[in-house]
Design a protein that fits this description.
mainly beta, Elongation Factor Tu (Ef-tu), domain 3, 12 strands, cytoplasm, rRNA processing, RimM_N_sf, ribosome biogenesis
């Protein structure tokens, strides 16, 4: 299981005091309010940075991060992804999963037929949609609804589904 979860991407600076604009990669932007620290990935190492302040403008998050004191310093972080460690991630409700845990999971039909692996997850508003890549390279979409997704085993990286007529 992945120990760090991607929660946002720094897309620009904000003001002259080193704040950064973050595009959130989470379904609830207000989760940033409870963050005490975030991580950036440099090479293969995750480096912690203390969160000193959080504001919201439209659908973006404005963060004040420790050690970034001016606009020039903040510019160095443009396009960098922000992560949280799994221990400090929000608790998910039942039948809810982190996208990072779903990517790569094997999708199997109830009769045992292997359909492929999840390569992407799309949020549509009413429900998520999983993009499945087959061995032949073709992809198809399935809705993340109880009528289709029968069981998810994150630990063993398997999902059992019952395809509705016309999905494949």
């Amino acid at each position: 299981m992945i120990n760090f979860l991607k929660v946002g991407q720094i897309i620009n600076t904000h003001g002259i005091r080193g704040e950064v604009k973050v595009y959130p990669l989470t379904d609830d932007v207000k989760r940033f309010s409870s963050l005490k620290k975030v991580f950036i990935k440099k090479d293969e190492e995750y480096i912690p940075i203390e969160v000193q302040g959080v504001k919201y403008i439209k659908n973006l998050v404005i963060l004040k991060l420790s050690g970034i004191e001016d606009m020039n310093e903040a510019m160095r972080y443009k396009n960098v992804f922000l992560y949280v460690d799994r221990e400090n991630a929000v608790e998910l409700s039942e039948d809810t999963y982190f996208i990072a845990d779903l990517i790569g999971i094997e999708v199997i039909e109830e009769d045992g037929r292997k359909l492929g692996n999840i390569v992407s997850v799309f949020s549509t508003g009413s429900n998520d949609v999983y993009e499945i890549k087959q061995e032949n390279g073709k992809t198809f979409l399935i809705p993340a609804i109880k009528e289709v997704v029968k069981n998810v085993d994150i630990e063993n990286k398997k999902m059992i589904v019952k395809l509705l007529e016309g999905l494949l």
